[in-house]
Amino acid sequence: MTAPEEAHTSTERTLILVKPDGVKRGLSGEILRRIEAKGYTLAAVELRTATSDLLAQHYEEHVGKPFYEPLVEFMLSGPTLAIVAEGDRVIEGFRSLAGTTDPTSAAPGTIRGDLGRQWPTKVLQNLVHGSDSTESASREISIWFPGLS
Ligand code: DAT
Ligand code: MG
Q: What is the atom index within ligand 1 of the atom nearest the CA of 125?
């Protein structure tokens, strides 16, 4: 059995995206800075143009929701910076750095809270994506970086 103090010590990876709004606004560097300043390691960083197929896999859980089409349109509106970050509890840690989904009410100190705000679009343009579980992280990393060992 794993002792409680060992339960959170395994190094893990997460998939982070600087979405098209973040890249367009020149915030890629600021977001990478926050990831590195927190102590995480970069395992892959690549500027990518998404496709509808890739996004259908990435946002599998949201296909068919009212915001899905606007979300895909937004994600196709420009390049995305795809990042794999590594470190102890990085999945949870990056979600905490990112802040809650709606940037208007996201806490100050977070990426979304400090740098984002909602304006009248059908989708929340909230600067970043971060995997939400170990299962999503391994699924999403294999979608965006199929060759990464
Ligand atoms: P998160 O990105 O915080 O994990 P999510 O996985 O629930 O949030 O949703 C994915 C993205 O879809 C989110 O970053 C912005 C958009 N979105 C989610 N809920 C929405 C809603 N109710 N209206 C508009 N866009 C939404
Ligand atoms: Mg999500």
A: 15
